[in-house]
Hints:
The structure holds two protein chains of two kinds. Chain A has helices spanning 2-5, 19-24, 51-63, 74-94, 108-123, 142-151, 168-174, 197-206, 226-229, 254-259, 294-310, 312-331, 358-367, 380-385, 402-419, and strands spanning 32-33, 36-37, 39-40, 102-105, 129-133, 154-158, 179-185, 211-214, 233-237, 248-252, 270-273, 278-280, 336-339, 348-353, 370-371, 373-375, 391-395. Chain A is an alpha/beta fold. Chain A folds into two domains: 2-48 and 311-419, Aspartate Aminotransferase, domain 1, CATH 3.90.1150; 54-309, Type I PLP-dependent aspartate aminotransferase-like (Major domain) (Aspartate Aminotransferase, domain 2), CATH 3.40.640. Chain A has a seven-stranded mixed beta sheet, with helices on both faces. A four-stranded antiparallel beta sheet of chain A has the order 13-14-17-16, covered by helices on one side. Chain A is globular. Chain B has one domain (3-147): Sufe protein. Chain: A (Alpha-Beta Complex), CATH 3.90.1010. In chain B, 36% of the residues lie in helices and 18% in strands. Chain B contains five helices and four strands. Chain B has helices at 3-8, 11-18, 66-79, 84-98, 125-139; strands at 31-37, 42-51, 54-63, 146-147. A four-stranded mixed beta sheet of chain B has the order 3-2-1-4, covered by helices on one side. In chain B, β2 and β3 form a beta hairpin. In chain B, α2 crosses α3 and α4 runs antiparallel to α5 (125-139). Chain B starts with a helix and ends in a 14-residue tail after the last strand.
Amino acid sequence: MSTIARPAPAAAPAPAYDVASIRRDFPILATKVYGKPLVYLDNAASAQKPLAVIDAERDVYEKCYANIHRGVHWLSVHATDAYDAAREKTRRFLNASEAREIVFVRGTTEAVNLVAQTYGRTHVGPGDEVLITGLEHHSNIVPWQMLCEEKRARLAVAPINDAGEVDVDVFARLLTPRTRIASIAHLSNALGTVLPVRRMVELAHERGVPVFVDGAQAAPRMPVDVRALGADFYAFSSHKVYGPTGVGVLYGRAELLEKMPPYQGGGDMIRSVTFDKTTYNKLPHKFEAGTPNIAGGIAFGAALDYVTRIGLERIEAHERDLLRDATDRLGAIDGLRIVGTAREKAGVLSFVIDGVHPHDIGTVLDRHGVAIRTGHHCAQPVMDRYGLPATARASFGLYNTRDEVDALLAAIHEAIRMFR
Amino acid sequence: MTNDLRDLYQEVILDHSKRPRNFHSMPQADRKAEGYNPLCGDRETVFLDLDGDVLKDVSFQGAGCAISTASASMMTESVKGKTRAEADALFERFHDLITGKGDGDDPELGKLAVFSGVREYPVRVKCATLPWHTLKAALSDAQAPVSTESEGPTAESGGAS
């Protein structure tokens, strides 16, 4: 390892990943918790914000705030331009064909609900099936369950193995002539498994089944190309890619979005309204009723600029190093078991310790300044699969360091000393 | 261990969490109830052997964190031999103690005073009260499992999903 960790030679094409400089972009990382430096390892729940994002949101309110897509006045025109620019940045971020394929929503959860309530309600009927996997977040289970209940359809689940991987052959077998849509995570929030989305989409498309991809955990951690993946829908949240809360993205292939009915009725989603008949606006506005999160959307664009400038490939490599280091060192602790041991993993490390409940681990770590998540991670079926009530989960972000893995280790040893 | 953690995880609490007392099922139980904290998945079953109005014997089983296990263990010791009314009153005092309303010097609390540190950890209050809510459910012969999330936005809010 030590040979790899040596600084790159001066002639290296790309500059070294300067995590110290990156950390200075995030004011909150200077926080002291109970007198200890904050070690923020709860990035899968939400990521911290760089100054560029905080400034961008403040700038909107200080310099160019007005409602968008409405006014003829100077401010409205500038706010509209900035908001539309964020949409174009999102298109580029996902390598979508057209900006009108990018629908702004409140977050990944709303994106799933939108597709379930529009595409789902018009395509799923009694006896039909919706296919998900055994590692989904509640937000990629419940909206489909609600749809299936309403339509008397069946929710099929492709199971995971002990490592936390989805068996692609089983997934293929569960794609039946009654399957109307498949909805799968790109990266599991509870286990860290990276799913073979491209292959799964291929299999679904061979049977004429469109695929929704929940990219909430993948978008901050790896380059995403919706066209290379073949995804029909792809969703992610701003707050996990270092942007503000309350903004999310639904990408949908224009051909599908065009045919879908609107989600909510209101302003901005209409072309004309009389008491007899309303005609709907063009994409993406048909799905964006009401005044959106204008400042948040613009600041989200700044977050995409920020991660793009660092480079998703480099972020991915950095987090892979941290995950490998943490996995090796935690895995060597007597009585500690890593939950989720898929060959392809990213960013997320779930674990349990014999004789120490995850909540007690969380409390002890917290007093050492180390913020992790404990509980079921909004993925109770995953916990049930492993027969666990809860796990402790450390999840990495672009600003985490090897020193922070040291702090995590030290605090875990402290917890073990205390409770064993 | 930092001093703050020592306030929460006092020796007595650690001892009860590692070696819980009255930790067994009770075939002859008159009453039993299941308690569940959906936020952390903790489950505990409380068994009761009643003699008229008196809690002749109390035991519990289940899996939980150190705080909820120790709380259940010490609860069974504290309420054994008490009347229903005395057990209810003790829960009220205990609840006041861990939510910061009461006083750690309350002599009625006896050994339960070691839970005073919980007040500094609002997200852990539910862990300490789970066995007590379950006992209450057993006393009222509730059929459905009792959940820490069923009592509305009280002083015990603070967990996040």
